[in-house]
Design brief:
Elements: H1 3-10, H2 17-33, H3 37-41, H4 50-53, H5 55-69, H6 74-99, H7 104-132, H8 136-163, H9 173-178, H10 182-188
């Protein structure tokens, strides 16, 4: 099985078009009304912010299972799950800010990416609750399922970035059109 082909197949899920269109409209409206587009999209940084923000929930959630299983420390595991959950809202907002700028095949992948990650968030919320109720076995199960959902979402996010080029060269139009740096383009002219 070729993973790239599986991920690329999502680009052709035309049945997602109405959902993608609605999500794009809502995402654009929410971000633009709050005047958050510039901050959330990363123009001040020169590249999208969402890929940077995802490292916090991914790192916290991945570490949580290590602390629970390897170090036998469910209290730290619970705290790490909580940190990941706390970092989720700005990460989601930044992702939705970028979503409004995607083309339709990218939006199809983005919808499935968001659904998979939404599933992961729900599972980690259940894990956090199980930890709080001192049910570490249930918390671990939810955590493991959350990691699987997060892995699928991450693979789709990687496909968006690396295979589909979502957000690439967003603030460098000359390079985006020519696949050359602005300096190379100007020296060739």
């Amino acid at each position: 099985m070729n993973l790239h082909r599986v991920l690329a197949a999502v680009e052709r899920f035309r049945f997602l078009d109405r959902t993608a269109e609605s999500a794009s409209r809502v995402a654009g409206t929410v971000v633009d009304r709050a005047h958050l587009g510039t901050v959330l999209r990363g123009s001040w940084l020169g590249h999208p912010v969402h890929p940077l923000l995802v490292t916090v929930p991914i790192g916290a959630w991945s570490s949580s299972i290590v602390f629970d299983v390897v170090f036998k420390d469910p209290a730290t595991a619970r705290r790490l799950v909580g940190i990941g959950l706390a970092a989720t809202p700005p990460t989601v907002l930044a992702g939705w800010a970028d979503y409004a700028l995607l083309n339709r095949p990218q939006q199809r992948v983005g919808v499935v990416h968001a659904a998979s990650n939404g599933t992961a968030v729900a599972l980690f919320a259940l894990s956090y609750r199980a930890y709080r109720r001192e049910r570490p076995a249930a918390a671990r199960r939810y955590c493991l399922l959350g990691l699987i959902a997060m892995g699928v979402g991450g693979a789709l996010g990687g496909h968006l970035s690396y295979a589909q080029g979502a957000g690439v060269f967003r603030w460098q139009p000359v390079r985006a059109l020519t696949d050359r740096s602005p300096r190379e383009f100007l020296s060739a002219a």
